[in-house]
Amino acid sequence: MKDHRKLVFEPGGSRRTLPNLRESDILSGGDEGHLKLLDQREEQTNDPGYDFAYTDPDGHFVAVQVKLGSSTKTGSGPGKTLGKWARFPSDRGYPFDRTELWLLDRGSLTLQIWSAGRNEPDAEFGLADVVETGVSLDISNRRSSQKFDSARVEERVARWVEQVEALFTQIEGWVELHGYSVDRTQTVSMNEEMMQRFAVAAVKLPMLRIRKGTRVAATIFPVGLWVIGANGRVDVLTPSGGATIINASDTPNDPIWMIYSSPGSKALRLDQQQLIAAIQ
Questions:
Q1: 11, β-bridge pairs
Q2: Fewest beta carbons less than 10 Å away: which of 66, 100, 218, 229?
Q3: Residue finishing a domain among 132, 164, 181
Q4: Torsion angle, CA of 279/190/232/172, rounded to 10 degrees?
Q5: CB pairs under 8 A, 24+ apart, for 196-202?
Q6: Does one domain contain both 77 and 165?
Q7: What is the pLDDT at residue 197?
Q8: What distance in Å separates the CA atoms of residue 89 and residue 52, rounded to the nearest whole number?
Q9: CA atoms of 13 and 80, how far apart (whole Å)
């Protein structure tokens, strides 16, 4: 039987930078509401790889992809879409234990949550309404008047690599002062849509595993450069949840690192105190 309870969409701190959803559009209370979604083409263009991540009750890191489309009948499943998505963590080198595909259907106003290897959704919710915003997205982060070419994209990618490495070096120093150890040997691949469009080669970015003794306290890795509402995003995954770090600067230079440390929290300037609080 379909669950007609209203969905409370609380993906955590990263909800402020979801490619598909804006904080003001999230259903979070009352008897009725509207879940606004961007046009499918813009959603795919701006998708950094996954929409948000969370830790399930068993302590597994789960990556979620939100897609618009028709809900599928029990026994059929989303097929190739789910199969391709299930390979995402290993293809990109991300540290997720499993993936989920969230299918939103405008017609039937339902949300289905699918996991790989299943012939029926894990859960299905009824939604009050699903509408398009009609918003025209600016993939170049508020600088649509600037012309983009391969040289400019390469320059931005190189600058992003430098900024991530500098941020991670700073984080290493902060956590080591509090008795944590850092493993920086692993990497993730960066091959975003903008890079593919201008034939810019993929690059490797560092990933941090922060330990307290033998326990993994947090995994920190860059998610994407071209994300809506920021000039880059880095995720912090912990056994109890996680946080999102964004570059809030209006320009690619001189990053302003802000952190969303809990569901519904306001962005705070990232410093040693905020980072340690996020991984404890």
A1: none
A2: 229
A3: 132
A4: 30
A5: 198/148, 198/149, 198/150, 198/153, 199/150, 200/150, 200/153, 200/154, 200/157
A6: no
A7: 76
A8: 13
A9: 30
Evaluate whether residue 142 is within a structural domain: no
Q: Which of 98, 132, 166 is the last residue of a domain?
A: 132
Q: What range defines the domain where residue 210 resides?
A: 150-279
- Rounded distance, CA 89 to CA 63, Å? 8
* Whether the Cβ atoms of residue 205 and residue 161 lie closer than 8 Å to each other: yes
| Per-residue pLDDT at 255 | 93
In 108-256 the beta strands, taken as DSSP E runs, fall at 110-115, 123-126, 130-132, 181-183, 187-190, 203-206, 208-212, 215-224, 233-238, 241-247
Asked whether residue 106 falls in the same domain as residue 155, the answer is no
| Co-location of 175 and 227 in the same domain | yes
For 67-114, the pLDDT digits (tens) are 766 555 544 556 666 777 777 766 766 777 878 888 776 566 567 788
Residues 66 and 112 in one domain: yes
DSSP β-bridge partners for residue 10: none
Interval 142-190: pLDDT, tens: 333 344 567 888 999 999 999 999 999 999 999 999 999 999 999 999 9
Residue 7 lies in a domain: no
> Is residue 145 situated within a structural domain?
no
CB distance 278 to 269 below 8 Å: no
pLDDT, tens only, 36-57: 443 433 333 334 467 667 666 6
CA–CA distance, 141 with 195 (Å, rounded to integer): 15
**Would you state the pLDDT for residue 15?**
30
What is the amino acid identity at position 224? G
